[in-house]
Amino acid sequence: MVDREVLDRRLARIEELLTRLRQLAGIQREEYLRDPGLQAQAERWLQLCAESVLEVAAHVIADSGLRTPTTHRESFRILAESGVLEEALARQMERWAGLRNVLCICTSTSITTSCSTSCKTTSDRCRRLCRRWCDP
């Protein structure tokens, strides 16, 4: 069974990071593009958010006794196959795993400016599903 306390801590971290990202999304585009510090903050917070989501997936997979994924993307495929995630959300989360990989390898302002809209949708759906995992 998924440890509710561990899951709640990880979800709180995701919410904290998404709050910071939403604050950055309120900054004028021109200001954001002129300020490498703001770009670095956005990239780092996106990376940490994606990694936190991957930690939640790994925790659920391990505690549920599901097969071990060979890639980050596969984590969400396993959760979908086992009925833990809806297929559409699994595909969206697979893209988050890809984003994490990109952010770990390179930096791109176009990545950070295009991701702000998906943060809220992902957060709401992830939170709802994580609560369902904890309540058998």
What do you see in this structure?
The chain is mostly helical and 136 residues long. It has a single domain (4-134), classed as bsu32300-like (Four Helix Bundle (Hemerythrin (Met), subunit A)), CATH 1.20.120. It is built from seven helices and no strands. It has helices spanning 4-25, 29-34, 36-64, 72-81, 87-105, 109-114, 116-134. Helix 3 (36-64) crosses helix 4 (72-81) and helix 4 packs antiparallel against helix 5 (87-105). The radius of gyration is 15 Å and the shape is elongated. 26% of the residues are buried.
**Structural class assignment:** mainly alpha
Strands, count: 0
* CATH architecture term: Up-down Bundle
Ranges with pLDDT <50 over ≥5 residues?
A: 107-123
Q: Please describe the biggest sheet, giving its number of strands, its sense, and whether it closes into a barrel.
A: none
**What is the tally of helical segments?**
7
Q: How many independent structural domains?
A: 1
The CATH topology assignment is Four Helix Bundle (Hemerythrin (Met), subunit A)
What is the typical, i.e. mean, pLDDT?
Answer: 79
Order of secondary-structure elements: HHHHHHH
Rg over C-alpha atoms, rounded to the nearest angstrom: 15 Å
Assigned CATH superfamily = bsu32300-like
Overall 3D form: elongated
So what's the CATH class? Mainly Alpha
Strand content: under 5%
